[in-house]
């Protein structure tokens, strides 16, 4: 395990006076040399958990640090403290262990072994990988059934394939934790589900290993029905957020934009529109991580990306990248003589989108075109929210909190015509079903319904508008 790096063990403990010593004693002696830090975090227990931890620290050869939280932070809140400390101390892997002995410390070597593969971001111990093992370990039948039902539901909604969502035996690569907004998660028991959602959303790799099940005399502090309701709300809220319905208060997701690549979505339609064109020079304004540009590069286009933030990996996905605030126009470093200007999901973020359109037109060759995508503020979602008096911003989508301008079909057409462009093609696209996570079984039916609704009332059911523009001859400077 020499390639894994610095390993830490986070023992979360609450009223674990009678079990903590035994848990620490069960850490395999042959594994001691691999451990750089054992953090025992007593969550303001009402018994002698802290004193037991301090006594163990004095007599043990393990590098133990004992913390006592001045107030009860909750199961999730206690983890946050431990993970912050792991990040601050420069650990490479942190393993979550419970002070009540419910999870086997003997499995620690197996919990960290997968991290020898640098692509692994998290390792979860699963009690469901051994058929019948959970029941043999005295897991109550109602908990077993609830675990299986909830895990199945969460897999379906998230599009994952985990054998269990509800084991508290976890190990994380600390560099991965640094990328996740875990500190915004719940302080309760659904913290574990929320961090799974964040790992999944960030495309991180989770490995599961089988662990034994042990149910003894420990006190269960989880309200089963309340917990089930909380995790169900978390996964549903995630899917709604991804489609632009939600402010991110329930599950905090990473910043950045998703590639909407299905044939019916905005990015998919742009790629289809360009599929028959002769590859040329493209100026991708607001390129974000370059995921759309990457597809164009594969098709033979030369793509110059411009954005105010440099997302990791963007320079590998574009021909060239320029870091610039588009509120100040197209930067000189971007060059000129472009056959196509793309402005997908960018105009709504600008103080003066018309100014950028004029500037972009000056960078087109004669006969060049522009394609823009804007959200439709007259979509049923913002209409309903405004009508009910509950207008507010979301983390992403039509009401993205970073949007400065709103567009309807009429207003965006007026904007582009005012800035010297003619609309050659305008179409409405529906909800981003790929981001929403609609499963294949329902997808065909929903697409057929949405297509019909878009044809009947595009301004009500169009999630975004795509416009292909040509520049008027008298508008060129």
Q: What does this protein structure show overall?
A:
This protein has 477 residues and is an alpha/beta fold. It has helices at 20-25, 49-59, 74-88, 108-112, 133-136, 141-158, 174-179, 191-201, 224-242, 266-274, 291-298, 353-362, 380-387, 409-418, 433-436, 440-456, 458-461, and strands spanning 7-13, 35-42, 64-68, 93-98, 122-126, 170-173, 206-210, 281-285, 302-307, 320-323, 338-344, 364-375, 421-429, 464-471. α6 (141-158) runs parallel beside α9. The mean pLDDT is 90.
In summary, what is this structure?
The protein is α/β, with parallel strands linked by helices and 477 residues long. The chain has 17 helices and 14 strands.
**Fraction of residues in β-strands:** 15-25%
By CATH, the superfamily of the largest domain comes out as Spore Coat Polysaccharide Biosynthesis Protein SpsA, Chain A
- Shape estimate: elongated
Q: What is the count of structural domains? A: 2
Radius of gyration, in angstroms, nearest whole number = 27 Å
Q: Determine the CATH topology of the largest domain.
A: Spore Coat Polysaccharide Biosynthesis Protein SpsA, Chain A
| Helical/strand content category | alpha/beta
